[in-house]
Amino acid sequence: MLAIAAVAADRGFAQHASAPAPSSPEPSVPVLTTTAARGSVPIYLEGIGTVQADNAVLVRSRVDGTLMQVPVREGQDVKQGDVIAVIDPRPYQAALDQAMAKKQEDQAQLANARLDLVRYQSLARQSFATQQQLDTQQALVAQLIATIAGDQAAIEAAQLNLAYCYITSPIPGRVGLRLVDPGNLVHATDTTGIITITQIHPITATFTLPQEQLPRVTAAMAKGAVPVLAYSSDDSTELDAGSLLTPNNSIDQTTGTIELKAEFPNPNDTLWPGQFINAHLQVGTDLNAVTVPPAAIQHGPDGLYVFVVKPDRTAAVQPITVGYQTASLAVVAKGLSGGEQVVVQGQSRLDNGTRVSIDNKTAMS
User: Fold this and answer.
1) For 355, which DSSP code?
2) Distance in angstroms (rounded) separating the CA atoms of residues 72 and 335
């Protein structure tokens, strides 16, 4: 009995040893995915531009004199007509007073000459005065009338010079750094100026696009106002939204580009004269576009493709054609219909048929 049991045990052990080991499941590759979305996508043309003040004024004196006051602060916003500088007005007030006194003197002489003219006319009718005396008196009256007209012109010139002593802002804008301090003597011939004023509400920017894009721009303008977005120089922050004013009337033949000008309301002072920006000009909208993140797009020897995750959790290579792309999205013109799960991270370990595990909570390298 012991021998039979030993033989049976040996046979059981031999059968167990010869049985194949169960196969382990194929390891899966962790990936991040997103859904290929379908919706409206604005189409932008992008160009590098420079912000410039809509109006900029270098304020200079139009009369000679001592700068008495600059009643505005550097960086202050001023309205059109605000007093921004005062030149010593006393010499010009004195000149005005002198011109007015001269007119009064000549007016008194004219009144007397007219009375004499009336007397000469009466005497001439009685033949007690000659025609020559009458003509001479009439000429004197005309001469004094002309003198008074000259006096009035002198008064107006003196009033104008006096008004020039109170320099007002010709535009609404922001005051720059003061160029001359009060107490200094300024002249009408000075080229330095006293202060600068720049209008920044609204503000404009000029930017360039390749000449090939001009037909798209003019087509967009024919449909109405063309939106323009101003981004920071690193193209990461939207600064303001405005509209296109006009393209230039000629193409730069040296660069093959067209210059365009846009206007922005700039309510938060995010745009400043001289600032470099990236301008995004919207020339249309794709109303039914399929989009994926640029990170999903791979470059292969046969063109662009993405990895699509199939329902059985395997990856498949899907060739695509990209029609329009920005830093945040790419419009897929061919290859996807929307709703597909595409891999955006972890593609380096994938191939056709690779099993994947989706973990969209943790970034994979």
Assistant:
1) B
2) 64
DSSP assignment of 56-72? EEEE--SS-EEEEE--S
Question: Which residues lie below 8 Å from residue 361, measured CB to CB, with a gap of 6+?
Answer: none
Segments of the chain scoring below 50 in pLDDT: 1-18, 362-365
Domain 61-84+167-193 in CATH 3.10.20.310? The answer is no
Q: With respect to CATH, is domain 26-56+205-365 assigned 2.40.30.170? A: yes
- Listed residue (356, 198, 169, 176) closest to 271, CA to CA: 198
What DSSP designation does 349 have?
G
Amino acid in position 14: A
Let me know: does 281 contact 228? Beta carbons within 8 Å: yes
* Domain segments of the chain as ranges: 26-56+205-365, 61-84+167-193, 90-164
| pLDDT value for 8 | 44
Q: Whole-model pTM?
A: 0.72
- SS3 at position 305: strand
Distance CA 100, CA 153 (A): 10
Spell out the residues 6+ positions from residue 112 whose beta carbon is closer than 8 angstroms to its own.
none
Architecture of the CATH domain 90-164: Orthogonal Bundle (1.10)
- The residue type at 238: E
Q: Tell me: the pLDDT tens digits for 50-75?
A: 999 989 999 999 999 999 999 999 99
- Sequence-distant (6+) residues with CB within 8 A of 311 are none
